[in-house]
Every structure is written in C-alpha cells, then in structure tokens.
C-alpha cells in the first residue's frame, strides 16, 4: 500500500466544483473550497443543507456526480474509501458492537497490517482518557465515552484529514461544552486537519479557526469566525450566525468612504468597505450588541455621525449579563438590541419612546436583492434541533 | 384471598412449568422402569437396564445415529446455502428477487403431509431411489427457509454505518465482510442452524414419506409404538433433553461470567 509511507506533513484539502445530485435535487452544488492544512474547520449549516453528503464524498462513501477532491496535489476523487488517508467520526459513532474498546481503536491499524498495535492503542486511549476501559464493550460506555472512542478510533490512523459529522449532536448540553474543549485540545495536540460539521453556530464559533456557512448545497461565506460575524456578506449568514437587524433602503449618495442610504425616510451611513451591495437597492445591517438605547428625550446625546432610529420599546428581557430590548421603529419593523448591564439603575421600560443608535463603522451593507428573512427560520430550526436533544 | 391475589403470577408460572415438565419427567422416570409386559406404560420396578444397555434393543441406536447424521449434514448444507441466499436477497438487486423472497416462505407454509407426499411423487417419477439422500434433500429444503428468514432479518437489522465505518478504517470489501459483517450476522446463523437441526432430528411426516427402507429415530419410535416402546428410547430421549439443557445452561453461565468480569474490571 502506497499510503503506508505517508509523511506526517499535513496538506490542504481542496474540493473543486464538487456536486452531488440525488435525482433532480442537488444536495451539494458546485462546491469549491480549500481547507487549510492543520486547521480546525467548521462546516456550519441548517439540517438538510448537504453537510453530511459533503463529508461522505470526502471520505469516499459517496461518489460525486461531478467535481474533484484533492489532498495536497494528490487527486483522491477515484480512490475507494479504504484507500483514502481520511477518517471519519460518524454522527452515531458507529462503534463495532462485537469488539471491545481496544479492538475498536486498533481496527484501522490491523487492517493496514500493523503488527504491534498495543503501545499505539494504549497511547491513543490515554489521549482521550479512556485507558482504563480498554476491555469494555461499546454498549457499556456512556455517550460521552463512546464519542471519545470514535475519535480515538479515527485519529489513531494519523489521517491527513479527520471528518467529524455532528460528533456532539447526541450529547446533552453540559457534556457537549466539555467535549468541545476536549476536541479542541486534541486537535491542537495532534495538529491534524479537522473538518467539523455542525448546525450549532455557537459550537462552530467557539471551536473553529475557519467557518464555512453552508446553505442549500452551497457555501455562503467562509472565513475566521470573528470576520464572518462582524462582516456578513449575505442575509443568510447575518441571520444564521448570531442575529442581525436588517433594514431595506436605497443608496442616496456617497462621500469619500461612506455610502449614504435612505430607508423609510431615515438616513443611514454605511462604510463602502463594509458593503457588498452592487445596485442602488441596499440592506443596512447591524448586530444587536453594537447598538445603544437612549430615552427619546436624550436625543442630543447621540454622538455626531451615528446612525439612529426612533422607536418604542415593545419588550424587555433581562438576562443577567445583558438586557434584550425589542424596539418597534416608526415603519413597524422590530429591531433587537442587546445592552450590556454596565450601569445599576434605570433601564428603559415597555412603552418608552427611545432612540437607538450605533456607529457607522459597525454597520454593514448587503445587496438589496437579498431576502432579509433568509436564514432566520434555519437558525430557529437549528436551535430547536439542539434543544430537542 | 389477598395472599392469592398477590401471588397469582407466581402460582400461574409454577403451574405452567409443571404442565411443561410432567411429560418430560414421565419419560425420564419410565427410563428407569422394568416393564412388566410389552408396554412400558405403568411403573413396575426400578432398573438400570435401559441405561447400562442403551443399544440393547436392535434398531434403537442405529436409527438414533441415522437421525444425527442426517440432521448434521442437512443443517450444514442448508445453513451454507440459506446464508448465501439471505445475503443475495438483502444485498443485491436482481430480477426475480421479490419472487424468490416469496417462494422461500413456501416450505414453511406448506403442510408437511403435502410436502412429503409431493416430494415422494417427484422422486418416484424420477426413479430416484429412496433412502438417506432423499430424506436429506427433503430436510435441507425446509431448513433453508428457516435459515434464510433468520439471517435475512439479522442482516436487515445491521446498521449500514458499521460497514461504512469499516471501509473508512482501511478494510477492503473482503476484510469488511470478515471482520464486521460476518461476526455480526453469526449469532443469527448459529440460531438458525440449531433450530434447523432440531427440526430435522424430530421430523417424522416428511421423512416417513421419503425414507424408503431407511429408519430414522422418529420412524423407529413410530414402529415401536405398535409393539411397545423399549425403555431404551426413554433413556435416549432423556439424554437428548439433558444435552439441550446443558447447552442452554452453559451459554447462560458464560454470558453471566462475562458480564460479571466486565462489571468488576
Ligand atoms: N442517499 C440519499 N438519497 C436521496 N437524497 C438524499 C440522500 N442523502 C441525502 N439526501 C438529501 O440530500 C440533502 C442533504 O442531506 P445531508 O447531506 O444529509 O444534509 P445535512 O447533513 O446537512 O443535514 C437532504 O435534502 C437529503 O434529504
Ligand atoms: Mg447530517
């Protein structure tokens, strides 16, 4: 086997025009991404958007309809699953029920003809802190332990790429947080490229150094978590990754580096560098925690040049760290605002007339053709899926 | 009255057990009897004759061995064929697959008299000499059905992700079968084989039609019943029962030990 002499140097994973159709439906649609070597890469998207199908094609368990998959400059598109230097942590773990933990972990080494597996397996079991359970059967382990066996069983083969398909989906919330840290630690320790599929945006943001947001078989946006969060390029990303206020308007003019926008008779300013609008229709966007709520009588306190909207408070919820306001603008749209609880004392109450303002530098512009509700349902669905477990 | 209500389940359970074990204990008890006349029906006096002289009556042991042999050979062949058929039916799409699925049930659904007599007609028509071969052919036929049904259920219940995981972990198709698929289906195959053997061993109707001059154990007993069944038959029956009991108990104990070992580790 040629793969035996594989070097330890990790290489980039390239998906080029990758497409998979089931009948008429494109589960994965012309996907082109490069996943940097050694990165913790998260593929984030709502249920049914094609994440699993993408992973299965990389693993070799599903044949692409078209396109190719390369690791470094080696084309692996036509290789069978058992010939690829790629291993998977399955959504349901898929541990072999007839083998004990030791043999589960040793499976890959044995199939490649490695003679003395004992030391390697024990070392790997120690890495995932399961050394004492080597002779148990999978059914005698808790969910979290099974999950770690699945990781160990895949990682022991030193794959070029480790694929994780919603590996934490079946765990309860507390265990999930714990495993997120654990997985991150393991990844740092071994330095393998991790491709982590999830529908949980918080999980993706805390774990990954690169996120690709996927929607209906395509990648909407890809980049560092903070980069995508601060500057979403599509309405789907703005709504699916965290929350956003999106206001539909028209370009009214432009100065040096700011675009002047009018929406519902209100003037806004958007930095040119932060706008992905192409025509005169534009969507003004801002994240809820970037905004400040003031009593309408204090309108003079709004800093010069800030974007501002008058409105009335329709809901206040106190969450400890912050207070969440719903403010209805004059044109009926409800805006969501998070205020940090910095000051002890008066907060606005339901029915108060207020002014909401934020700096233009925190504003982003989206193309006017976008649907401002794209991704809202998907985010709610993903949240439900998380809560339902 | 309250006591009765509280222990109703235990009482019914014990009664059912008694009901199940009375015939067996009668059989066993009469194996230690010295019959007064031809018929070993009522208790006369204690004797170990049947046990010390198991093969003392002509035909008992030879028919017993014949049934063992036919059972083993039929089971072996039927299990092999049935397992392969089950894999083909579950894993491959081919013309006539659904028809095969249906036909495989036929031997189970057909009344034994019908099957036995039809087979006899067939063998006679083909001028095929009746004997061990025809009995074995008949037995293989109905055992296959049980094997296919059991193994098929087991295969269909197999999580396809386990085989995918094996492929993902560098197992070639052959290695995947050997180290994952087969071990997971094996309990089903063993169960089917045990069932098949016991069906073959005590089959009377189909065997009787197709045996010619061959005498299997059930056929011997049938014949002996006319003249009086010797206590040796009771002894052999007890032996079979005890063997089955030991197999069941042994497997239970092994499993219990395993679980204990796991818990203490
Ligand atoms: N084997 C298949 N046959 C037909 N449709 C499929 C198959 N596998 C997946 N799909 C469809 O492809 C889409 C993407 O599925 P999947 O990749 O599993 O999504 P995700 O993992 O993001 O939830 C879904 O609409 C799903 O119904
Ligand atoms: Mg999935």
Automatic annotation (TrEMBL), chain A:
Pfam name, any one: ABC_tran
One term of GO molecular function: ABC-type polyamine transporter activity
Any one GO CC term of the record: ATP-binding cassette (ABC) transporter complex
Sections of the chain in a coiled coil: none
Residue span(s) of domain ABC transporter: 13-241
Name used for this protein in its record: Unannotated protein
Disulfide bond in keyword set: no
InterPro entries linked: AAA+_ATPase, ABC_SmlMolc_Importer, ABC_transporter-like_ATP-bd, ABC_transporter-like_CS, Mo/tungstate-bd_C_term_dom, P-loop_NTPase, PotA-like, Transp-assoc_OB_typ2
SMART domains reported for this sequence: AAA
Keyword annotations from UniProtKB, A to Z: ATP-binding, Cell membrane, Membrane, Nucleotide-binding, Translocase, Transport
Tagged with keyword Transport: yes
UniProtKB/TrEMBL annotation, chain B:
Protein's cellular compartments: Cell membrane
Classification via InterPro entries: Bact_Polyamine_Transport, MetI-like, MetI-like_sf
A GO biological-process term: transmembrane transport
Domain ABC transmembrane type-1: 64-251
Keyword Transport: yes
Membrane topology: Multi-pass membrane protein
GO cellular component: plasma membrane
Any Pfam family matching the protein: BPD_transp_1
Keywords tagged on the record: Cell membrane, Membrane, Transmembrane, Transmembrane helix, Transport
Keyword Transmembrane helix appears in the UniProt entry: yes
Transmembrane residue ranges: 12-32, 70-90, 102-124, 136-155, 176-199, 205-223, 235-254
Family note: Belongs to the binding-protein-dependent transport system permease family. CysTW subfamily.
Protein name, as recorded: Unannotated protein
Organism encoding this protein: freshwater metagenome
């Amino acid at each position: 086997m040629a793969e035996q002499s594989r070097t330890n140097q990790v290489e980039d994973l390239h998906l080029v025009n990758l497409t998979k159709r089931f009948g008429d439906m494109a589960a994965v649609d012309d996907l082109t991404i490069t996943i940097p070597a050694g990165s913790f890469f998260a593929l984030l998207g709502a249920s049914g958007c094609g994440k699993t199908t993408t992973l299965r094609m990389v693993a070799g368990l599903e044949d692409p309809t078209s396109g190719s998959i390369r690791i470094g400059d080696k084309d692996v598109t036509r290789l069978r699953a058992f010939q690829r230097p790629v291993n998977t942590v399955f959504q349901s773990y898929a541990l072999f029920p007839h083998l004990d933990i030791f043999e589960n972990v040793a499976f890959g080494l044995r199939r490649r003809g490695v003679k003395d597996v004992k030391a390697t397996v024990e070392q790997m079991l120690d890495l995932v802190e399961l050394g004492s359970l080597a002779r148990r059967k999978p059914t005698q382990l808790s969910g979290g332990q099974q999950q770690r066996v699945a990781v160990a069983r895949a990682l022991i083969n030193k794959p070029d790429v480790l694929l994780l398909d919603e590996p934490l989906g079946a765990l309860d919330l507390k265990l999930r947080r714990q495993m997120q840290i654990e997985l991150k630690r393991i990844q740092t320790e071994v330095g393998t490229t991790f491709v982590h599929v999830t529908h949980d945006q918080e999980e993706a943001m805390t774990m990954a150094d690169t996120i690709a947001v996927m929607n209906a078989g395509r990648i909407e946006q890809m980049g560092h978590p903070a980069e995508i969060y601060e500057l979403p390029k599509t309405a789907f990303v703005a709504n699916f990754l965290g929350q956003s206020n999106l206001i539909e308007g028209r370009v009214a003019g432009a100065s040096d580096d700011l675009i002047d926008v009018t929406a519902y008779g209100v003037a806004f300013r958007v930095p040119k560098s932060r706008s992905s609008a192409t025509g005169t229709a534009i969507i003004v966007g801002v994240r809820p925690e970037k905004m400040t709520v003031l009593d309408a009588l204090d309108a003079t306190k709004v800093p010069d040049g800030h974007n501002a909207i008058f409105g009335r408070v329709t809901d206040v919820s106190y969450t400890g760290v912050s207070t969440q306001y719903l403010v209805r603008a004059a044109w009926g749209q409800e805006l969501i605002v998070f205020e940090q609880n910095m000051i002890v004392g008066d907060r606005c109450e339901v029915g108060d007339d207020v002014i909401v303002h934020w700096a233009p530098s925190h504003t982003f512009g989206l193309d006017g053709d976008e649907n401002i509700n794209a991704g809202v349902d998907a985010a709610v669905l993903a949240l439900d899926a998380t809560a339902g477990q | 009255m309250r006591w009765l209500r509280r222990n109703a389940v235990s009482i019914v359970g014990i009664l059912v057990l008694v009901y199940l074990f009375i015939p067996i204990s009668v059989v066993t008890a009469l194996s230690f009897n010295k019959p007064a006349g031809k018929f070993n029906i009522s208790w006369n006096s204690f004797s170990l004759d049947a046990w010390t002289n198991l093969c003392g009556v002509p035909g008992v042991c030879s028919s017993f061995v014949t049934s063992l042999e036919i059972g083993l050979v039929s089971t072996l062949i039927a299990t092999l064929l049935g397992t392969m058929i089950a894999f083909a039916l579950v894993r491959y799409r081919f013309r006539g697959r659904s028809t095969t699925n249906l036909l495989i049930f036929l031997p189970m659904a057909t009344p034994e008299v019908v099957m036995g007599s039809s087979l006899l007609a067939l063998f006679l028509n083909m001028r095929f000499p009746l004997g061990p071969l025809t009995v074995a052919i008949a037995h293989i036929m109905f055992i296959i059905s049980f094997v296919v049904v059991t193994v098929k259920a087991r295969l269909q219940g197999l999580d396809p992700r386990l085989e995918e995981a094996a492929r993902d972990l560098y197992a070639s198709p052959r290695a995947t079968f050997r180290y994952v698929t087969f071990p997971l289906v094996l309990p089903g195959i063993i169960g089917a084989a045990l069932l098949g053997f016991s069906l073959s061993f005590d089959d009377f109707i189909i065997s009787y039609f197709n045996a010619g001059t061959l005498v299997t154990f059930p056929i011997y007993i049938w014949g002996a019943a006319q003249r009086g069944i010797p206590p040796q038959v009771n002894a052999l029956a007890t032996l079979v029962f005890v063997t089955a009991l030991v197999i069941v108990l042994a497997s239970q104990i092994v499993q219990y030990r395993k679980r204990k070992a796991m818990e203490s580790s």
